[in-house]
Amino acid sequence: MTAQAVAKPPVRRDTQQLQPGRPWPLGATVRDGGVNFAVYACGVQRVEICLYDTGGTRELRRIALRERTDDVWHGFLPGLQPGALYGLRVHGPYDPQQGWRCNPHKLLLDPYARALDRPLRGAAWQYAYKLGHDRRDLQIDPADNGTRAAKCVVVDSTFDWGDDRAPQTPMADSVFYEVHVRGFTRQMPDVPEALRGTFAGLASEPAIAHLKKLGVTAVELLPVHAFNDERRLVELGLGNYWGYNTIGFFAPEPRYLSGRDPNEFKRMVRALHAAGLEVILDVVYNHTCEGNHLGPTLSFKGIDNRSYYRLTEDQRHYMDFTGTGNTVNTSHPAVLRLVMDSLRYWVEEMHVDGFRFDLAPAIARSGQGAFEHRSPFLSAVAQDPVLRRVKLIAEPWDLGDYGYQVGGFPTGWFEWNGQYRDRVRDYWRGTEGSLPDFAAALCGSADIYEQSGRGPQASVNIITVHDGFTLHDLVSYNEKHNDANAEENRDGESHNRSWNCGAEGETDDEAVLALRERQKRNFLTTLFASRGVPLLLGGDEMSRTQGGNNNAYCQDNAISWFDWSEERRGDPLIAFTQSLAVLRRELAVLRGSAWLNGEPDADGRRDAGWYSVWGLPMTEEEWTNPAVRCVAIVLDARFAGAPGSSSVLLVFNATSEAATFTLPDVPGHTGDWKLRVLTSEGCFDEKGAAGYAPQAHLELPSHCMALLTQQPEA
Predict the structure, then answer these.
(1) What is the reported pTM?
(2) Distance (Å, rounded) from C-alpha 243 to C-alpha 531?
(3) Is residue 464 one of the residues assigned to a domain?
(4) What is the separation of C-alpha 423 from the centre of its chain, rounded to a whole number of angstroms?
(5) b (16+ CB within 10 A) / e for 369-396
(6) Strand 278-283 and strand 354-357: pairing?
(7) Where does the record place Basic and acidic residues bias (predicted)?
(8) Mean pLDDT for the chain?
(9) Does 713 or 404 have the greater pLDDT score?
(10) Can 190 be counted among the known catalytic residues?
(11) What is the CATH number of the domain that holds 30?
(12) Could you tell me the end-to-end alpha-carbon distance of the chain, in angstroms, rounded to an integer?
C-alpha cells in the first residue's frame, strides 16, 4: 500500500522571493547575486530546499521548488550567498515494495552538493523506517532528523589557480603511489599538528619532499568523496577509514579539511602539480553508503530510489554486484549524467589528472546487467573530450556474473592487474610451476592485454595495495590477523599467497629477518623492472606494517597510519626504492611500450632472450618443468628506441638454495655486465658496480635476484 509521505514543516514555507531559475546545471550554483537550485527527482510531488543557520542545527526557511522541467525541479533564490547551508526534503510515495522510499521527515543531501558542513557518522536517525519494527523497512519513520543531519554547503567555485599546469606524465613513465590522505601525515612530525591527516598536510613541504625523494610521479588517493561511517562500526568505536562508502560525488570528505574551506583540496592539487606530481582519485561510483533495503537514507534513496539504484524484480530489494548491498544504476540517463558530471567536475574544476574506478565492471554494465564495451558508461566515456585526456584506470572486477574482467576493458583504459600480483607472489614464495606465468607478468602480461590492441602500459602492476597485506606483512605472515576489526577474523582474504619466511609475525630470528628483507627487495625490484606501470603501496618503502591485518578498512589509528619514527625514516628500504625509481627512469628498455616477441632479426638480435642457469637459451623442457625457478632474461636496449641506453640482464633465483648462473653470451654484448642491483645486498652506482664478462659466473643466494646493465654495440 502506498503512503504519500508529506511532512508538516516546523517553519513557514517561503516562496515569495523564489524565481523560476534554470534546470541546468544541477545542484546549487552561485550566479547573478543569488543561488540557482536544480534537483532531479522523478515521480515525486514536491521538492523543498531547507536553509539552515551557520551552525547547521536550526532550520531558517523552507522553499518549495515550483518549477519542473523534464523531472528537474528548479528555482533561483536572489540574495543567497556562498557558505549557506541547505538540505533537501522530497515529498512522494513511501512504498518500498514498489521501489519508492520518499520520506520528507528526513533531510537529504543534494547529489550535486559541492561540500558538506560535517563528516557523516552512522546513526539510527539516518534511517527512513522505524528500526526494530516488525515490518522493518516497510514502516515509515515520522521522526524528523533535520537538526542532526549533515548539511550541504553552497560553494563559490572561484579560485586562483595561478600558473597551475597538469604534469601530463606519459603512462610509460608513470610510477603510482597509492596513499591515504589521513594516514600519510597523521603522525608525520614535520607537518604542523593542525594540518596532519588533511589535504593541507599532504600538500605540505615535508610530505611532498618524501614523495619527490622516492621518485614516484603520481599519488593515487584512496576515496576523497564524502562518505559515511557504518552505524555498526560507530557503535563498536570504529569508523570507515578507507572511505569506500561514499555518497557525495562532488564533495571532498570534510574530515580531510583542516578548516571548513573546500578550496583546500584545490590548493593541494596546485602544490602537487608544482612539484611535478599527478593526482589520481580512487572513485566509488558503483555503490553508495545507503546499503540494501535495510540501510540508511541519506540522499539517493529518498530522492528517486527507482532511478538511482538497480532494483530486483520485486522492487523492494537491490541488485548487488558490489558486495555492499546496492549497485548504482549507471544505465539510467539521469544517473549516468550524475557520474559523468562528477568526473568532469573533478577534472575541470579540481584539476585532477585521472581516476581509478573501484569495482569498475559494476558501472560498465548494460541495463540488463551484462558487462559490455557498449554499455552506457563506457560509451559515454569513450566520446567525452574532457575524460579522454586523463588517465582512466579500472579495478577490473566486481561480484556479479562475469565480473572478473582483467584484460576485458576497451582501448583507452588501464587496469589494476590482479593476475600480475598473483603470479609474482606465487613465484617468489616458491610455488612449483609458477615460472611461465611469472615470465609473462614480467614482460607486461601480453597473454592478457595484447589481443585487445593495448600495449604493456595497460597493465598497472600491483603487488600490494590498500586491501590486503602490506609488503612487510606479505613476507611476515602466512595468515591474516584481523581480530581488531571485531569480526572474529572472518573478514578479509584468506588466500593471500604470502609466506612468512619461517616465523609468523614478529621474530628476533636473524636468518628469518634477513630473508624477509631480501624478499621485500625481490618484490620491489621485480615491480620496477617489469613492463607496465608500477604501483607502489604507500609505506611499503619503509616497511609499514599493519600487524598482519589484511583488511584494515575500519582502523583509523596506528594500525593504518604511517609510522614516521626515526627507525622507520631510517629504513634502508627507502633508499633502495629510490634507487629503483632512478634505474627505471634511466633504463628505457624497462619502460617499453611494444610487446616483446623474442624472435631474432637478421643480425641475430632479440628484443628479449630467456636463459637458463647454464647461460643457454631456455628449452621447452625447462619451461614446463614445475621445479625450475631459476631464470635470466636479457632486454636489448637497441629495441627500446632510446640511443645510448643500456641493455638489462635480470637474473632470478626463487629457490631455497644458492644458484650459480653462467652469464649468457648475447649478440652485440661483448663488454662487462655491471651489477646494479643484488637484492641480498642493495643497489650500486654504475661507476662503482662490479663487472662480469659474458660466460662469467654470478652466484645468487637463495631467494634473490640481480639486475645488470651493459651498453650494447651500435
Answers:
(1) 0.97
(2) 31
(3) no
(4) 21
(5) bebbeebbbbebbbeeeebeebbbbbbb
(6) parallel
(7) 483-496
(8) 96
(9) 404
(10) no
(11) 2.60.40.10
(12) 82
Please give the tally of structural domains in the chain: 2
Quick one: which of 96, 102, 99, 126 has its CA closest to 5?
102
Of the residues 126, 153, 180, the one at which a domain ends: 153
Which CATH number covers residue 681?
2.60.40.1180
590 pLDDT more than 60 = yes
Among the listed residues 334, 346, 309, the one whose alpha carbon sits nearest the alpha carbon of residue 38: 334
**Residues above pLDDT 70, as percent of the chain:** 98
Burial label for 602, CB within 10 Å (0-12, 13-18, 19+), is: exposed
| Beta strands 533-537; 459-461: pairing state | parallel
Give backbone dihedrals phi and psi of 87, rounded to 5 degrees, phi first: -150, 175
* Predicted local distance difference test score (pLDDT) of residue 644: 87
**Residue range 70-93: average pLDDT?**
98
Q: Which amino acid is at 438?
A: F
Q: Where is the domain boundary, 128, 153, 178? A: 153
3-state helix, strand, coil in the chain (%, to 5): 25, 20, 50
Other CB atoms closer than 10 Å to residue 687's CB: what's the count? 6
Distance between CA atoms of 705 and 222, rounded to whole angstroms? 32
Q: What is the pLDDT of residues 445-478, one digit of tens each?
A: 999 999 999 999 999 999 999 999 999 999 999 9
| Per-residue pLDDT reduced to its tens digit, 64-75 | 999 999 999 999
Residue holding cell 623492472?
529
Handedness of CA 676, 679, 683, 684 (dihedral sign): negative
3-state secondary structure 687-705: CCCCEECCCCEEEECCCEE
| Catalytically annotated residue among 137, 282, 358, 517 | 358
141 is catalytic: no
Residue 311's nearest CA partner among 470, 614, 131, 95 is: 95
pLDDT(630) > 80:
yes
Tell me, yes or no, whether 603 lies in a domain. Answer: yes
- For the chain, what is the largest distance between any 2 Cα atoms, rounded to a whole number of angstroms? 90
Between CA 706 and CA 692 the distance in angstroms is 12
Instruction: Report the C-alpha gap between 457 and 449 in whole angstroms.
Output: 9
Compute the distance between CA of residue 592 and CA of residue 585 in angstroms, rounded to an integer: 11
Residue 274: burial class (beta carbons within 10 Å; 0-12, 13-18, 19+): middle
**Residue from 330, 333, 342 nearest 72 by CA:** 333
Range of the domain at 631: 589-710
Cα(19)–Cα(66) distance, rounded to whole angstroms?
9
Q: With 50 as the cut, is the pLDDT of residue 9 above it? A: no
Which one, of 708, 703, 656, 662, lies nearest residue 679 by Cα? Answer: 703
Catalytically annotated residue among 59, 229, 395, 540 = 395
Helix (H, G, I), strand (E, B) or coil at 166: coil
CB 7 within 8 Å of CB 48: no
Residue 689 lies in a domain: yes
Pairing of strands 659-662, 225-229: unpaired
The 10s digit of each residue's pLDDT in 427-436 is: 999 999 999 9
Here the cell at position 124 is: 539510527
Q: Identity (one letter) of the amino acid at 309?
A: Y
pLDDT of residue 1: 40
Q: In a 10 Å sphere around its CB, with 0-12 CB exposed, 13-18 middle and 19+ buried, how is residue 9 labelled?
A: middle
